[in-house]
Every structure is written in C-alpha cells, then in structure tokens.
UniProtKB/TrEMBL annotation:
One of its GO terms (cellular component) is cytoplasm. CDD domains: UdpNAET (cd01555). Belongs to the EPSP synthase family. MurA subfamily. It comes from the Bacteria. It comes from Calorimonas adulescens. The active site is at C116 (proton donor). This is UDP-N-acetylglucosamine 1-carboxyvinyltransferase. Gene3D superfamilies: Enolpyruvate transferase domain. Residues 7-405 form the Enolpyruvate transferase domain. Its main location: cytoplasm. GO terms for biological process: cell division; cell wall organization; peptidoglycan biosynthetic process; regulation of cell shape; UDP-N-acetylgalactosamine biosynthetic process.
Length: 417
C-alpha cells in the first residue's frame, strides 16, 4: 500500500499539460472490439482503469498492445466470451462490454460492474435500451446475460439523463437494423468522443452532444485511428488547485468550452481566468468569495468536481452550499475533510460549508477517486503535513498526479505505508 505525504501552504505556479480524458478512454476502448480490424487509440491516460481494460481484453483472447499513451486493439480476434469477474469488478465502465458485444455478436455475458462506492448507480436505463432494441436480458448470480436473434432500431426515451446508458445504447444500436433515436440523451464531451470514434469506424451517428442522437445501424465496422479528447475533470481539478492555493497555473491541452461551468463558478469566487484557444491561465486571488454549486449533467457543473470545489469553498469568505443532483451518497468525503478543520454539515443532497481561515494537516483517506483528488487538494492548501491513504482510487483516474503537482512546486511524495 502507498500513500501521499504533503506539506501544504505552497502556491502552485507554472504550467501543466492535461492528459487524455479518463471517461472517454474507458468507453472508447471496449468500443474497439466491435471493429473487424485494428483500432489505434492515441492520447490515452496511463491510469489503472486503462491498464485494467487492456487486461480485460487480453483475458478475452483479444490481441492488445499498449505502450506509452497508445493502444492497438485487433477486433478481428474478439469473441463473445465472459471476462474474469475479478477484472470486471475493478471499475464501473466494464458495463460497456455489454453494448459492444451485443452490437457485434448479439450476445454478451459480463459480470456486474464495480468502481467507486458513491451511492446507488442502477443500470435500469441500459437494460431498457437493450430490450427496446430486441435483446433479452437476465441477471443471475451477479452476471448480466444479454442475447438477441437480431437488434432492430427504435425510439428510446431515457427516463433520466445517463451518460453510461447513452453510450451503451449507442454501441449496440450502431450495428442494429434500421434507425435508433435516443431521446433525453447525455451531452457530455466524452459521449461525443465515443460517437466520433464509432463514426471513424464506419458507424452512422448524428446528434451526439444534443438531447437527441440518431443512429443508423451498419453491418460492419472497420479499424481506425483515434485521439482521445483532453480530460475535462483533470483540467478542472488543476484550475481549482490554482484558485485554492493562491497560485498561478497555465493549463494546456484543454478545450475551454468544455470548462465553461467551472470557469463561471471560479470567477464568482473572484478567481482570475484567462482562456485562450487551447489553454487556460488561472490566478488565485485573496480574499475569495463564497458561491453556491449545483451539480448537473453537462453543460452544468460536473458532479466529479464538487469534491475538489468543497476544498476551495472551505477557505473562502462566507458560507457556500453544494447541492448534489446526480448521485446519492456522494458526501462521504466531508467527514474526512472535517479532520482538517472543515466546517460543514450535510442536509440531504446538500452540504453547507462555512469558510475558515486555514485547514490543518491530518491523516485522511481517499474514499473514492474524486474524493481522493479533494484530499490531495486539501493537503496542498492546509498548514502542516497531510497523509492521504488509499490512493489506489486516485491512480484509477489521474495520470502521474504527484509528478505534475511537483512540477508546479507542490511538496508531495508517494511513500510506502
């Protein structure tokens, strides 16, 4: 086991390059097995979830090469076999195998997904979509079994905006007969990235990034080359870190329009934001002001950034409120931050945060991926030394986080427990 040891109170200054998007990568990789050819995926982040995908595909007999930030996947070797449950349960995104294999082979057997424990995350909308396309779905002993004689396009209205269901249905529908319309679809940038990848393979998808996605099924998908988009959440994490530490960071390799909601909220606190074509400069000014956050599906404020934002709001003037509208039970990290002097109370879906002068170092746990990022950020802000344990969660989603922070002047090191 490893942990981070952080000596806080140092403003972060310098330039950082953002890696490929984790949420796009974990959906594009399984989509590649639908191709009757070789797909080369570039700009992949070197994180545990991406390596886990490589291991899952190899366990299924699929030929995979993964070096640096590039993966080659030979879809010609794919077969509809069940991957090992111990690999599937390491991440939530393993459910994309159901849509990909159902689309190509009309059959899928996949264990129920794992990932971070952040409340109830049902897959009912995924199942609704697969059944509407003509598949029969059974869940027995923790395994999803999907099968169809044929998939036929239809209109599917999602009862809630779901990124996972939107992508999974899009995968299966890409090789269905006729036209599928997904209404009330998720609009996140990584939904668009997956659609662009499928189109590069020969799919016919229009409307990704809007409420309505139209998919005309094709009989065959071919290999292609694809570059993953920059990671919106990693970029937002460094933006918040600059503001919280009173630093000055230029964040490169970003798509600024993906960050509009984050820019707006940071500017409300008094943070100076200077965007350009593919970079953003963030200057933390003192004193910062309180603001209220309501997480929403894109283009609203991302649920994956409310935890780092809580750290920033803990050291501003005044009282702020964070309302979580996407997931249940996503405030478990609040109790960890209280060990560092956070003044907050949770009422239902909201956390009310009263700004304090300083946080102080303590030993805290990364309860999940994004909460882990918040613990690291709190350590950077706090006076004294902070130990962050259970950092394997952080490694699932951030590429070389401590190295990037060190290059900005942070006093952080990874040590064995």
């Amino acid at each position: 086991m490893e942990k981070f040891v952080i000596d806080g109170g140092v403003p972060l200054i310098g330039e950082v390059r953002i890696s490929g998007a984790k949420n796009a990568a974990v959906a594009v990789i399984p989509a590649a097995i639908m191709a009757d050819g070789i797909c080369v995926i570039n700009n992949l982040p070197r994180i545990k979830d991406v390596q886990n995908w490589a291991n899952i595909l190899k366990s299924m007999g699929i030929h995979v090469e993964f070096e640096e930030n590039e993966m080659r996947i030979d879809g010609r070797t794919a077969r509809p076999v069940e991957p090992p449950i111990e690999l599937v349960q390491q991440m939530r995104a393993s459910y994309y195998l159901v849509g990909a294999m159902l689309g190509r082979f009309k059959k899928a057997v996949v264990g129920m997904p794992g990932g971070c424990s952040i409340g109830v995350r049902p897959i009912d909308q995924h199942i609704k979509g697969f059944e509407a396309l003509g598949a029969k779905i059974n869940i027995e002993h923790g395994v999803i079994m999907a099968e169809a004689e044929r998939l036929v396009g239809t209109n599917i209205f999602l009862d809630v905006v779901s990124v996972g269901a939107t992508i999974n249905i899009m995968l299966a529908a890409s090789m269905a007969e006729g036209v599928t319309m997904i209404e009330n679809a998720a609009k996140e940038p990584h939904v668009v990235d997956v659609a662009n990848f499928l189109n590069a393979m020969g799919a016919d998808i229009k409307g990704a990034g809007t409420d309505n996605i139209r998919i005309r099924g094709v009989k065959k998908l071919s290999g292609c080359y694809h570059t993953i988009i920059p990671d919106q959440i990693e970029a937002g994490t460094f933006m918040i870190a600059a503001a919280a530490t009173g630093g000055d960071i230029t964040i490169t390799n970003v798509i600024p329009t993906h960050l509009d909601s984050i820019i707006a909220k940071l500017e409300e606190t008094g943070t100076l934001i200077i965007p350009s074509e593919d970079s953003i400069r963030v200057i933390g000014k003192r004193p910062l002001k309180s603001t209220d956050i309501r997480t929403q599906p894109y283009p609203g404020f991302p649920t994956d950034l409310q935890q780092p934002m809580a750290v920033l709001l803990s050291v501003v003037d005044g009282t702020s409120m964070i309302t979580e509208n996407v997931w249940d039970n996503r405030f478990k990290y609040i109790d960890e931050l209280k060990k560092m002097g956070l003044k907050a109370k949770v009422e239902g879906r909201s956390a009310i945060i009263e700004g304090v002068k300083n946080l102080t170092g303590a030993k805290v746990s990364a309860t999940d991926l994004r909460a882990g990022a918040a613990m690291v950020l709190a350590g950077l802000v706090a006076h004294g030394q902070t130990e962050v344990i259970d950092i394997e969660h952080i490694d699932r989603g951030y590429e070389f986080l401590e190295e990037k922070l060190k290059n900005l002047g942070a006093k952080i090191k990874r040590v064995k427990e």
